[in-house]
Amino acid sequence: MNLPLIGRPAEDLLAEVSRxxxxxxxxxxxQVTAYxxxxxxxxxxxxxxxxxxxxxxxxxxxxxAFPSVVEMERQVVGAVADVLGGGHGIFTSxxxxxxxxxxxAARDMGGRARPKLVVPVTAHPAFHKAAHYLGVEVVAVPxxxxxxxxxxxxxxxxxxEDTILVVASAPxxxxxxxxxxxxxxxxxxxxxVPCHVDACVGGWLLPWLRAAGAAVPPFDLSVPGVTxxxxxxxxxxxxxxxxxxxxxxxxxxxxxAYFASAAWPGYTxxxxxxQSSRSAGPLGGAWATLQALGRQGYEELGRVTxxxxxxxxxxxxxxxxxxxxxxxxxxxxxxAGDGIDVFVLADEAxxxxxxxxxxxxxxxxxxxxxxxxxxxxxxxVDAMLKVIADSAAAAAERGPVVLPDGLVELVAGLDxxxxxxxxxxxxxASVGVDLRPGSGQPEMAMVNAVLDALxxxxxxxxxxxxxxxxxxx
Length: 473
Known about the structure:
Elements: H1 10-20, H2 42-54, H3 67-83, E1 88-92, H4 95-110, E2 116-120, H5 126-134, E3 137-141, H6 152-158, E4 163-169, H7 181-190, E5 195-198, H8 206-211, E6 228-232, E7 244-248, H9 251-257, E8 259-261, E9 269-271, H10 281-317, E10 322-324, E11 332-337, H11 342-351, E12 357-359, E13 368-372, H12 381-398, H13 407-413, H14 421-430, H15 445-453, H16 456-471
Parallel strand pairs: 2-3, 2-4, 4-5, 5-6
Antiparallel strand pairs: 1-7, 6-7, 8-9, 10-11, 11-13, 12-13
Helix pairs in contact: 2-10, 3-10, 4-5, 4-9, 6-7, 10-12, 11-12, 11-15, 14-16
């Protein structure tokens, strides 16, 4: 794109935004079962959008210049702390940043020369990202392949004198099960190591599911040994994107998450988050959403989410050739295929207007499809089950993806750094995955089948090239 010589009117710009979004997945209605969270309540969305816009140009960089930021953040963090066992918090841009700050605080508190982070293999990749940026080694622990939960004794065996943080999930994203938080936290405490609970998904949902009658085990800062917890408000808080909270049991540990620098002659630098300048729009949107829904609103959303999850889990289990993985305890449901290629099933569902999120096989866990149930899902759960059943039947008839002979070996043996983006795009197009501009949305079954056949490092290298091609120069 070239910068226009003369500025364009707002009406033209908004019309072009609508045109650019015409192939996007819908963010309302429940047909997209990942990435977006929908209450089904237009008035709540409107209140959040208006508050977001009102705070859009307020800069969180200097709270002394914009005291509204301090008051809003205190109220939002206070509400989360009130529900999740107390603590001292920071409002962040999302789960990844919350996790980044938790790892940084633990690293700086621990003072180890070779810091290590002990995580289940089901822990979110944000921990690997944080470790990559912060110079921490990841020690991954397997999970039970029947329950998909980490075992406390395996965590205990992985902890050593260099461990700065132990992680457990409530729930883990892939199968929606809750790790044994009390036992893992006890192991960490006995070793003198902090324990972080990743409740980015469940933190603002599990309390409302418990209120609706679900058997939710203790998981928050009230559990002895839990020293920090992350909770995304742009997930089951239903706030606009860019809203999360990380809580620390000890205010001294929260201070270790901060960054300050006086090594220059300019304005004072003190950041509570990874970012410096950042819009207060997400904070305003989160504040308004919490206020608009209130405790009763979230309890009602928890009730309908629990009902939808139960119906969906039971309905999928009744479809021939499909099986639910584990016993989901929250609102995340993953299912695998017996004789059905789930990647083909996902393409079939996409063709019927529904997005089901593919998950690759890893650490003994089979390839599967993932569904995030939200407040709007119950109204369309029968339609979703019909789409899944029809797509499963169509996938069974089509059969699994057949990879060209030698393709996986070819990709695994490529020096991808030696290929430019154009050559990589041609290679992808030669096997039916055309990523070049104007080629439309490719079916992803072939892509996912190739990725699934590669080791993790190979998957990562290919994904980097895909992203580079898609965005272009």
